[in-house]
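call fold target=HAT C-terminal dimerisation domain-containing protein
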Amino acid sequence: MHQTPISSASIVLRQYLDLPYLDRKQNPIHFWKQRENVYPTLCRMAYKYLCIPATSVPSERLFSKAGLLTNQRRNRLMPKKVDQILFLNSFCTEKRTY
């Protein structure tokens, strides 16, 4: 029997939904690392959305830095350049805990 991409995705999704719930104290990243080969597409989606912080502090900090960066003296910076400077700044000042 030939499976279409939709039917294949439905089967994988059903298998995932049938798994028992993850305990609150367990690390979801570890859970997905263990199942990377079984659910490759779902794993990529999980990594994409699990990296979103559950707080507004990083975004507020970013807006503050952007306000300091784009002042009267730097009003001709192109948006792409501002994005690059903010990215480099956040990458260099971020505390690594892993």
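return ok
Residues 5-50 form one domain. The chain has two domains: 5-50, 57-93.
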